[in-house]
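User: structure tokens for N-acyl-D-amino-acid deacylase, please.
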Amino acid sequence: MIDAHDQVLVPGFIDLHSHADFSIMADPAAQTQLLQGVTTALVGNCGSSPFPARSVAQIQRDNAHLDAEFTADWTGARGFFEAVHDVGPGINIALQVGLSSIRSYVMGPNDAAPDSQQLDSMKRQVAEAAEVGVYGFSSGLIYAPGMYSQPNEVAALVAEAAEYGLLYSTHMRNESDRLLPAVEEAINAATAAGARLEISHLKAMGPENYGSPALALARIEEAREGGLDVKADVYPYTASSTRLTSRLPGYAMDGGQETLLERLSDPLQRSKIAGDMAARFDKDIDPEGVVIAALGAGDTDDDYTWAIGESIAQIGRREGCYAEEAAMRVLSAHGASVGIVNHAMDRDDVAKVLSHPLVSVASDGWTLRPKGEGMPHPRSFGTFVRVLGKYVREEGLITLEEAVRKMTSQPAERLQMENRGIISQGKIADLAIFDADSVRENSTFDDPWQLASGLSTVLVGGNIAVKDGQVTAQRYGNVLRKR
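Assistant: Done. Predicted tokens:
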């Protein structure tokens, strides 16, 4: 018997945008998720999935900023499915296959257009992943090597994904001064393919671009009225978190991280990269807001672990250099694998997007362990309870019922998961129970390693995974396959 007196019973939350595929093997208990009520996470977002893989070790190195830690080896989706199943995840994991991962597998990390044979090979990778049971195909068009894909290449792969009924999730090509053209590119690709489209973490970076998410939402509404199945998701914060290399000009990453390090060792190339980065300052990059969150291992004598929690501007002042040079130094010292928290968004934009009925709540997080090193983004610890505590209870931006819909039935609809996302006889019993008056996030940017509170009970597949606010020892998650 579960006592839920004076509490709220809801379906388990479904996180439409997670990167837990890179961290679930090291931390399968997923405590940060269960204590928010998350029972299912869609991974493989932003064009990055741990498969297809020619070298799992290389994937781990390239994604060190995502706490990437793997305990098995594989080449394709089937092997990764089995590896995650074997660790016994605490939450359900639904997979996508990523454009950047496919491109790197077929072409390497290079800025080049695929020939017809390479494009066919990339399409086969989409098809093979679909046949194994992935739910979607994703792109991350601000990240190398995905950024090197031209619209016709992306459209061809989206069309292949649509043949198998996969969702197309996209971290669009631009989130600043060309946000609207980026939305248009995504809509055009999905329309031509007949694909379902999910626009990932809709936002605008930089003061010059504040207000543009409202125009993007209007375009999404127009596309839906025209017959396209398109929606979006958002995390409820004004800061993003990503890799520092995403702030560099695209050519800097041509050839991958090792080639970038070679460029940074050449004074002329280093100066050009730094100058092109600085040209974006006070537009869509605020050097005071680019904060070091995590560092990969380095092979130099320099160590910037002291700089975790510091902005590149603060590092520059401490070292007597410009912010862009500070960024180059940190990248050079830590194998070009540097995670950042990037403060660059407008609160009103976040509220506008969050309150829109076509937008789901999603974390874009990956930190699953309750304690660790670095300064990770609070969204891994508090996205869903932040909405319930801050935006429902404290500010009244949306109703409790609407917030729950954005975390349950709407994400389930996007993934065509008919047995999850609602409470009904015969459905899978992924459930959460919380106190609406006390549920809250405790994680902050200054002190992120704090678990959420207010969730008393969570069930995964009808089994008690959280009891009296504590994660139980047994794990009940599954690797889900699209049928």
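User: Anything notable?

Assistant: The CA atoms of residues 393 and 421 lie 22 Å apart.
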